[in-house]
Write a structure and sequence with these properties.
Two copies of one chain form a homodimer. Chain A is of the alpha/beta class. Chain A folds into three domains: 64 residues, 434 Repressor (Amino-terminal Domain), CATH 1.10.260; 134 residues, Rossmann fold (3-Layer(aba) Sandwich), CATH 3.40.50.2300; 124 residues, Rossmann fold, CATH 3.40.50. Chain A is 43% helix and 16% strand. The first copy, chain A, is built from twelve helices and 14 strands. A six-stranded parallel beta sheet of chain A has the order 3-2-4-5-6-13, with helices on both faces. The first copy, chain A, has a four-stranded parallel beta sheet with strand order 8-7-9-10. In chain A, strand 2, helix 5 and strand 3 form a beta-alpha-beta unit. In chain A, helix 1 packs across helix 3 and helix 5 runs parallel beside helix 12. Chain A is elongated and about 90 Å long. At the A-B interface, strand 1, helix 4, helix 5, strand 3 and helix 6 of A face strand 1, helix 4, helix 5, strand 3 and helix 6 of B. Strand 1 of chain A pairs antiparallel with strand 12 of chain B. The structure holds a DNA duplex.
Chain lengths: 348, 348
DNA sequence: TTTCGGTCGCAACTCGTTTTGCAAAATGCG
DNA sequence: CGCATTTTGCAAAACGAGTTGCGACCGAAA
């Protein structure tokens, strides 16, 4: 059949319906119980019959129907990961880490882009929890915590872990984040040590925990730093620097709340004839792959996103097995200063 | 309970077990049939009772158990997407497109990284098809088509669509790809028109359809182009150029089979004191976001990855509904030449 | 009042697997 | 050889929703 022109059925050599345990049992001349026990090993089965059954299973390529197993066990064996946009490098790394652990611990993973907190989508994904399609959710907040009503309600009754971004309004939900404060503190001191005094901060969304922490840390070194808010995208760094230049704001150090905004800013600075780092030092946060490629290389703070994903998954699945979380289980991961060419001594 | 120290159960105000249709029916004083019909509308229900039931459903936040629905209907409402590595920009974009359409057409999406064709993982994901956890699979090939035995068998009996990479050994499986040949052809002509005569190709994995097509197209303009094979990563472009330099190979044009390798190559060229584009013109393929950021900007061919994802999803789901594919449904999407600063006239 | 067509609700079975109580067979030991 | 164990297998009841045949009830027409 295959290879002929026109319409092509899925099924050719294999039977259209998959085999049921019933049929295997019939073929082996035993009852379903025996087949089931052969597979699960929850009761001893005569080695001879067991072998005969195994052979038939292999021959028929029988696989138990996951729907039926789910119904019976009440467990779906799946967890969910909600990210603002899976196509971002940043969230892709988290996803990779989560997937790694989920796979290792025999859980399936459903990844959901919330399209930057599109409420309709978010509701759908929370529904995955309600319908028991997933047993738990790793939630990566994007902007401010929207849909909070929904989130609060869901977080009360279902296993949720926050990854990357803690939500202050929900202190009882475990979270895995980077040490935003310490990371930014190191950056601040680095630039202060280089003699800079006038700094500008291109911060992220105002409501985010990470933004707040990083800004606070930098202000420790630069109490008067001018703070603008962007949306974490390249363009936003670019545009905000345009604004600064239009107002002839004077500064020698620029903090991007993430690398993309820092790189966008750097691009705009160079377009305006300013040299990096001779005239302005620029730093970012994250250490995305692009940070090493741009010229000059971007001084930044490395976050281990994959590790955040891994730890979140471990936390969630541990909670699943235990039936609850210890309230104190939140973790914050160390960061690392990566020095590159975008920072230098303050100009005279 | 919440907020107290130590152990914290998931369930506080909400009952530990979700409501069943049974319980709703009992509360409303009717039978499950009535509740079911109220929801599905497959039979008329007294408006008064219907309203009472609806109210109870809303109050209890009842949602039908997806496992039970699956078992009964035989449909899981999920499709799978297998990509080599979800943390890559490239595959993230595809995933985004797939997700968009899946969401729109009311399918759930399970994303699986195959870790560059780790056979163990791949087997697991094919098993999702067998266990009916997913109804169909969008498969994005990574290196050569490994696990072909398994893939051939699965593709014969289950709905599969190839995205991004066609598999020549399985011509009957529908695919959605970019027009690799035409895209590369345009690049080749562009550089030939600039007067280049000595070109080097940094190709991808030798077994991939895209690599073959692109190489063939470039050789149309540069029949004697020296062809090396990399692994699509930055480092690989960098290292291969090191090799070229070590052998003092002379060339004025360099084709990267993807942007990352092209950018890696560009980096190495500059480190060797060669100017881009004055001494060597460099082109890539894909138009990743980084291509616009590096200096000089990378001339490349844009692929619409998200669209590839969208079309694949449409194709798969259409096939699911129809119960089979038309053999001729494969699509190839147009590409677009993006001119930036990395190409210029050949040096004298 | 009877009958008819239609509306609506109930009990009972189905999906495929897991798990139980129970009985039959096989084994051990005195 | 008989009794007490262990093995080993079967039938039946779950899990939660969807579906069907059937009968109860309604109002309206004869």
């Amino acid at each position: 059949m295959r290879g002929s022109l026109g319409y092509c059925e899925f099924v050719t050599d294999t039977p259209s319906k998959p085999w049921t345990m019933q049929q295997i049992a019939a073929a082996a001349g035993v009852s379903v119980t025996t087949v089931s026990h052969t597979l699960s090993g929850k009761r001893p089965v005569n080695p001879a019959t067991a072998e005969r059954i195994q052979k038939l299973i292999a021959e028929f390529e029988y696989v138990p129907d996951s729907g039926a197993q789910r119904l019976k066990s009440g467990r779906s064996g799946m967890i969910g990961l909600a990210v603002p946009d899976i196509s971002h490098w940043y969230f892709g790394r988290i996803a990779r880490g989560v997937e790694e652990v989920a796979d290792e611990l025999d859980y399936g993973l459903i990844i959901c882009s919330t399209s930057n907190s599109d409420p309709r989508r978010e509701k759908r994904y929370f529904n995955l929890l309600r319908t028991r399609s997933i047993e738990g959710l790793i939630y990566t907040a994007s902007r401010e915590i929207s849909a909070s009503d929904e989130l609060v309600r869901v977080s009360g009754s279902s296993p949720i872990v926050f990854a990357d971004e803690r939500v202050d309004a929900l202190p009882d939900v475990p979270s895995v984040t980077s040490s935003n404060f310490v990371g930014a503190q190191v950056l601040g001191r680095h630039l202060r040590d280089l003699g800079h005094t006038r700094a500008v901060i291109i911060a992220g969304f105002a409501g985010l925990h990470s933004t707040i922490e990083r800004t606070k840390a930098i202000k420790e070194s630069f109490p008067n730093a001018l703070t603008l808010h962007g949306d974490f995208e390249l363009k936003s760094g670019y545009d905000l620097v345009s604004d600064l230049l239009a107002h002839e704001v004077r500064f020698t150090a620029l903090f991007g709340c993430n690398d993309y905004m820092a790189i966008g800013a750097m691009t705009r600075l160079r377009e305006a004839g300013l040299r990096v780092p001779e005239d302005v030092s620029v730093v970012g946060f994250d250490d995305v792959d692009m940070a090493a490629i741009v010229t000059p290389g971007l001084t930044t703070v490395r976050q281990d996103m994959a590790e955040i994903g891994r730890r979140s998954a471990h936390l969630l699945i541990a909670g699943l097995h235990a039936g609850g979380f210890d309230a104190v289980e939140s973790e914050s991961l160390p960061t690392e200063l990566i020095l590159r060419g975008s920072t230098g001594p303050a100009p005279q």
